[in-house]
Amino acid sequence: MESLDKTYQRYQNQVETGLSALLPKVDVAPGAIHEAMRYCLDAGGKRLRPVLLLAAADLYPQKADPLPAAVAIECLHTYSLVHDDLPSMDNSPLRRGKPSAHVQFDEATAILAGDALLTEAFRLLAFHYEEQPACCVALMKCLSEAADSRHLIGGQVVDTLSENTTISADELNYIHQHKTADLITSALLMGLHLTEAPAEAFELLERAGQSIGLAFQIIDDILDATSTADVLGKTVGNDARQAKNTYVSIHGLEASRKAAQEATMLAIEACHSLPGTKADFLVGVIRKLEHRLN
Ligand code: GRG
Predict the structure, then answer these.
(1) Which of 94, 123, 131, 280 has its CA 20 to 30 A from that of 64?
(2) Pocket of ligand 1 (CB under 6 A)
(3) What is the pTM of this model?
(4) Which domain holds residue 32?
């Protein structure tokens, strides 16, 4: 049987191929924006969301090719990172170990590249699934809802407004749920929307996604608190780490580690309730995320 790492790599390779094939090439005019979009996407990253989408789409017989949807969610995720790094937000000079888009190009280009990636996500869904209108609408609803002002952007707004203030544990959960967990959940659900999955599978993966997202964000906060930022290629050169509320700043390191373990367990439990051994890969990824270093 294929190892977990091999399967992850196989999905990642599919994502890289899809990104390269489905995004406008740099020789498409205007080249400057396509170069910037590709720079942001080519900068690496775990490709977690598209890999989860492809894995969820492999759980049941497929109704349509999941690759364009996987590329779409990576475009949307990358847009959020590009805009988050801007001087008016986190002012991060590095992303994925390389200069952030506004450093590599300029601020206007970074804003436009983010806008273009967001638009591209929905263009991909509209044009690749038009012959399966029910799938197309379901994918659009799922992704747009996760990214809207009540979810991803809502989480970012509350996070931004709470800088330099002390917030409650509930407010922090709101931020984590909407900034991180909702998009991870939508990756799993978008995958299922491309299959013949029964309603119970949606309920289980919705639960799994929320727990994976919470665990993922708590671990991100632990990594930020316990590592030198430049080793991880993360935010350096600003005061964001001091000014931000994190799971560790509110609950402390030990309680954060315990909470990450608990959320990981809940995610695994939800996946184990899927029939047969269908969710073995997802369970493996969840376990691996708990021990990730970046
Ligand atoms: C600016 C619209 C807008 C939204 C910003 C996603 C987000 C909201 C901000 C990014 C900063 C951050 C720490 C978000 C929490 C989610 C998260 C941990 C993102 C990083 O995801 P990874 O680790 O990144 O999967 P890679 O580089 O591996 O893709």
Answers:
(1) 280
(2) 45-46, 48, 80-81, 83-84, 89, 96, 152-153, 156, 179-180, 217, 220
(3) 0.94
(4) 4-292
